Amino acid sequence: MKDSFFALTSRMKYISRWGLMRNTRTENIAEHSLETAIITHLLCELRNRRFGGSVDVSKAVLTAVYHDVPEIITGDLPTPVKYYDPEIKSAYKRVEEAAAEKLEDSLPEDLRPAYAPLLRESADPEIAALVKAADKLSALIKCIEERRSGNEDFAEAERSTLAAVRAMNLKEAEVFLDEFLPAYGLTLDEQTK
């Protein structure tokens, strides 16, 4: 239906993540996208302020906000399935593109140029890398939270996600791991001291 884009995006709260895992607390793509956007903002600020970059922070944060919107239509395909082999990965990319087109069609014609690029992976490789790192860091945080809640089902996911973040070789992600990630293992009282 035309003009249903924003009603559709409101449905992000109904799409659960980590479908193959037992969760102590369900996470949806709306909350994950917000956390990814917040981390993206930090990674961009680190790049620009500490490492001499000039990334467009607003564009990167908007890209992060919308990075999982096509999952409103596709659902969240778990990473082990999505990346099982090149054929599945390629097929899923086509499904994501079809979902992005359907979402784009739900916008008024005059607004499509503003939103269409946000429904796809950024054409800017610098932004794409920072959003991908933030996405992985958000997943790592979920793994830590689950494990701290006694759910050892996330122990291997935590190890492999941390390894994936380190393999990105992004200075900004390393700063996050060193300076900011340790606080996620603290209680509220410890965090606010």
Q: Overview of this structure, please?
A:
The protein has helices at 5-9, 29-50, 57-66, 71-74, 79-82, 86-105, 112-115, 125-148, 155-167, 171-180, 188-191. With 193 residues, it is an all-alpha fold. It is globular and about 50 Å long. It has eleven helices and no strands.
Number of strands: 0
Question: Residue ranges: pLDDT <50 for 5 or more in a row?
Answer: none
Mean pLDDT: 92
Number of helices: 11
**Rg, Cα atoms, Å:** 17 Å
Instruction: Bin the strand percentage.
Output: under 5%
How far from one another are the termini? Answer: 51 Å
Indicate the overall shape.
globular
Class inferred from helices and paired strands = mainly alpha
Secondary-structure element series:
HHHHHHHHHHH
Biggest sheet descriptor: none
Helicity range: 55-70%
Primary descriptors:
193 residues, mainly alpha, globular, 62% helix, 11 helices
Short summary:
62% of the residues lie in helices and 0% in strands. The chain has helices at 5-9, 29-50, 57-66, 71-74, 79-82, 86-105, 112-115, 125-148, 155-167, 171-180, 188-191.
Protein topology:
Blueprint: H1 5-9, H2 29-50, H3 57-66, H4 71-74, H5 79-82, H6 86-105, H7 112-115, H8 125-148, H9 155-167, H10 171-180, H11 188-191
Helix pairs in contact: 2-3, 2-8, 2-10, 3-8, 8-9, 8-10
